[in-house]
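Notebook entry, structure prediction.
Reason for the run: the old model in the group folder had no record of what sequence produced it. Starting over properly, with the input documented here first.
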Amino acid sequence: MTENNVIGWERDADGIVVLTLDDPNQGANTMNELYKASMKATVDRLVAEKDDITGVVITSAKKTFFAGGDLKNMIKVGPEDAQRIFDEVEGIKADLRRLETLGKPVVAAINGAALGGGLEIALATHHRIAADVKGVQIGLPEASLGLLPGGGGVTRTVRMLGIQTALMQVLLQGNKYNPVKAKELGLIDEVVGSIDELVPAAKAWIKANPEGGVQPWDKKGFKIPGGTPASPSFAANLPAFPANLRKQLKGAPMPAPRAIMAAAVEGSQVDFDNASKIEGRYFTELVTGQVAKNMIQAFFFDMQAINSGASRPKQADGTPFPKTTFRKVAVLGAGMMGAGIAYVCAKAGMDVILKDVSIESAQKGKAYSEGLEAKALARGKTTEEKSAALLARITPTADAADLAGADLVIEAVFENTGLKHKVFQEIEDVVAPDAVLGSNTSTLPITGLAEGVKRQEDFIGLHFFSPVDKMPLLEIIAGEKTSDATLAKAFDLAQQIRKTPIVVNDSRGFFTSRVIGTFVNEAIRMVGEGIEPATIEQAGSQAGYPAPPLQLSDELNLTLMQKIRKETEAAAEASGLKVPQDDSTTVVDFLVDEGRPGRAGGGGFYEYADGKRTRIWPGLREKFSSAPTDIPIQDLIERMLFIEAIETQKCFDEGVLRTTADANIGSILGIGFPAWTGGVAQYIAGYPGGKEGFVKRAEELAAKYGERFTPPASLR
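New structure, fully documented this time:
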């Protein structure tokens, strides 16, 4: 290896060349300019010396095998760069194509994660061997970044696995597999138990298969498994593919899944080289578009910043606080939230004391974990031994004395300041003297809750999302007196229980509850304006929200929404402010008065039968004279998106939000802001025309629908 070549070359006495990927300038190998030049030079040499070569092994000197495309460069390109990008991608694929048609057996020895471009390099070999060790993942996750695998991933997986399997299990969802699962699927061919076994196993396969240097699709008579549109049986089922995709996307502007499906189906009908060009064209269209930039920013750069601890505070001298691993947690309240929190803590190895007012209530809370584990056992996701150990770590109790020595408290009782003060005062002197005192509240200001404890510096907000065992986010809220040491411990807790942490400052509703409230209220306001409810739901789906707003409102519970609104109004009036009433207030009050508080109460915006939605309640249309509207559906869509974006900017202005990464990731993972936007802050930055374009459109909405859309001065 030299300064100009990141691929090491070592030829043994048997004529087998081991190529070692090792970029000296980066912690991981990526498809940057140095890689492109190195691979071209290496393949040139392989072709020149192939008469003296019996086979080739490709491995890596990094912890990962290969990290994929260079996202730092990808995020910068625009439509004007399309031809250059297409030519570069075709050049990368041309070298991989020369490698697989070298006429010699080529083996990938996968020592670490091979995701995206890393797997695409491996797919261009004739045999893939992976070490079944921690950290090895196999997959093509480009769809999660708004892209498609443009380095041959679509073309080769379709030919290896068939159109249906390639789409459903590899390409559309961006699945990541461990080596054993990847072998079962057919992405790799062999699994070994350690990294040291990889190269010897690769060389052994080459010696056993001297004629193994031909891909199946390069052999005469090759047919794609499962057929193509030219096959009558396959063609008969083909319309179901786009129909299912349309059902999943619900009209949301997500171009990547459509492009992936088109590249797979179109590419299956032509020869390999033309299929590769089709793939390249679709990749170029995606990578030069805005959605991919949005998603790369959020799901790669912002997520990387959060997971690397950018929001974890440092000590006064600039050094990190020591890392905390919690051993014993006291969960106060065994309702749905407390039961879920107990489960994720026990799953992370903590001893959990689950306390409620009666032992029966506490045991009912533990039963939630027992139900989850029963399902996991039935699906083969755990073992009897692991399940029994997890459940043994949860101790239900009604006795505060059982909380002795707990180094963490998470309160999860009803949203009532007096009640929360009471449960903390009952246990404060029982738990460890330096225990973190956490409150799982979704709206109540942390500074006010902290007044109920002696050690306010150890008090912090820990806002979990329901259901706790599935939702990936933890919103950490620092009160006025919360210490940085406590904040660092809370960050460590999030990582210990495998949640993505965002850190915000105190305010009523914090960030997530405050912002999602504007979305829900805007949709409900539309009902009060007489807009057909089904049209409102359609607008929410087309915007890309996981659940349309009226359906979501039923799930959140209208009585709770009414209670939070009244508390907010009371707090505002106590501060000398007047909260204006609007159409959303009228609609919610009407439904609650009609005995329709939401799904849990048997009816809300929707009617339910056996807990399942059946239709929008006709009484809604009667009360608010719902009718088709001449308001453009794009206006309805943008009213929802803009109202959340504007409230987010206010959170920045008021110092509630600390970073754009927290805003973007928190909005996507916590409150379902559409993933294609890259998050609520990126939506503003990525809007056509940038911030100026956003401001101009916000002013148009304000003129048509009300001053709440007036953009904050900080955006101008």
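Summary: The mean pLDDT is 95.
The old model has been moved to the deprecated folder.
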